[in-house]
Design brief:
The chain is an alpha/beta fold and 384 residues long. It is 46% helix and 15% strand. The chain has 2 domains: 180 residues, Rossmann fold (3-Layer(aba) Sandwich); 173 residues, Rossmann fold (3-Layer(aba) Sandwich), CATH 3.40.50.2000. The strands form 2 sheets. Strands 3-2-1-4-5-6-7 form a 7-stranded parallel beta sheet, with helices on both faces. Strands 10-9-8-11-12-13 form a 6-stranded parallel beta sheet, with helices on both faces. The termini are close together.
Length: 384
């Protein structure tokens, strides 16, 4: 088949996953022409952008409602470009709210134009965490669904969707492995890593509570070192928040190598709910998770979400790896108490390392990620 491949990702984790998939496809099928929406890593992999990925970065139900008119116009612009360009495959990566609406709207437009291309989405809707009824929205909308967890295809194949488990790329990342013991003693200062998220709304709501917790932890462990990994474009905002809260003793880093080094040497992590909890768990870092959102989003979330499954390592292994402190429970005091419980537990690190091994085995399910991706897409791109 000829023509470009349209690919879309809406956030940093999707950008990284999409870039890896682009590399796998280019390696198997030869260099492709890539068009669509993405970030730095996708641009480095050869993406010709049609718009700004940040336009899709919306947090919370309330914000999504307010942004709907703008996103709807943006979606229609993308569909016009897709119809004009006629790609051989449409690939969407995560950003489920936008991606699945785009797929549904695009299917109708394709029918009216008398042209079609397969639509394949990667990262299944988390119906196992909330709203299993949502799976019916996918029927007749997607041709394929690439799932990151082994239990997910069974939810979608009865709908006639070609759902395939491809494994989770994080489980194959050699950087995400437990670090050998550094010979720490009971009297050696501990190291805490705080991970407040990579979006503006998350930093605004979550980072202040984390800073309050750090101050309380220091009262009991004044020698503790604290690192805050972030992404380069958010560093000015992080620096500003730390300055406003009078915090000058936290090391900020934007380099990926420093993230792995910091987490690998962490005695505890304090992480915002999200993909990062999967990374830290795979590295054998003990800790706690938290999330703070708007009052409206929290209210709706409590009605719809199974809180026992929103933390990915917990959902995958079916038990609590990281306790979650959500909304009103995410006070500086409760977060500090949770962090200190980990720091003062001499068995926490070894238990986390054992959890990491089990998590990695479960997420791989056999095979290599790149081959799993290209095997799953053979029916759309053809045999090599």
């Amino acid at each position: 088949m000829t023509g470009p491949i349209f690919i879309l990702a809406g956030e940093p984790s999707g950008d990284a996953l999409a870039a890896r998939m682009m590399g796998a496809i280019d390696s198997e099928y030869g260099p492709q022409e890539w068009v669509g929406i993405g970030g730095d890593q996708m641009r480095d992999a050869g993406l010709r952008e049609w718009g700004d990925m940040d336009a899709l970065s919306i947090i919370g139900f309330g914000a999504a409602l307010m942004a709907y008119p703008r996103l709807s116009r943006f979606m229609n612009q993308l569909i016009d470009q897709i119809i004009a360009t006629k790609p051989k495959l449409i690939l969407t990566i995560d950003a489920k709210g936008f991606s699945l609406r785009l797929a549904a709207r695009l299917k109708k437009r394709m029918a009216s134009e008398g042209w079609s291309a397969p639509i394949v989405h990667t990262v299944a809707p988390t119906i196992w965490a909330w709203g299993e009824w949502r799976k019916h929205r996918l029927k007749g909308t997607l041709d394929g669904l690439l799932c990151l967890f082994p239990f997910e295809p069974d939810y979608f194949t009865p709908l006639g969707i070609d759902a395939k488990f491809i494994g989770h790329p994080e489980a194959y990342d050699d950087r995400l492995v437990p670090v050998e013991s550094s010979g720490k003693t009971a009297n050696k200062p501990k190291h805490l890593v705080i991970l407040p998220g990579s979006r503006r709304g998350e930093l605004t709501r979550i980072l202040p509570a984390m800073l309050g917790a750090v101050a309380m932890v220091r009262k009991q462990q004044p020698e503790i070192s604290v690192t805050l990994p972030t992404i380069a474009r958010m560093e000015p905002m992080v620096t500003d928040i730390l300055a406003r809260y009078g915090e000058s003793n936290i090391a900020i880093t934007t380099k990926s190598d420093d993230f792995y080094r910091a987490v690998g040497n962490a005695d505890a992590v304090l992480a915002a709910s999200g993909t990062v909890t999967l990374q830290t768990a795979l590295m054998g870092a003990p800790g706690i998770a938290t999330y703070i959102t708007s009052a409206l989003s929290a209210f709706i979330g409590r009605l719809l979400v199974n809180m026992d499954k929103v933390i990915l390592p917990n959902a995958i292994l079916g038990r609590e790896i990281y306790p979650l402190y959500f909304q009103q429970k995410a006070t500086p005091h409760t977060l500090a108490t949770g962090v200190l419980a980990v720091l003062n537990n001499p068995e926490a690190k070894q238990r986390a390392i054992a959890d990491a091994a089990q998590l990695r085995d479960t997420m791989r399910g056999g095979g290599q990620f790149n081959k799993n991706v290209t095997d799953a897409l053979n029916r759309y791109l053809g045999e090599v």
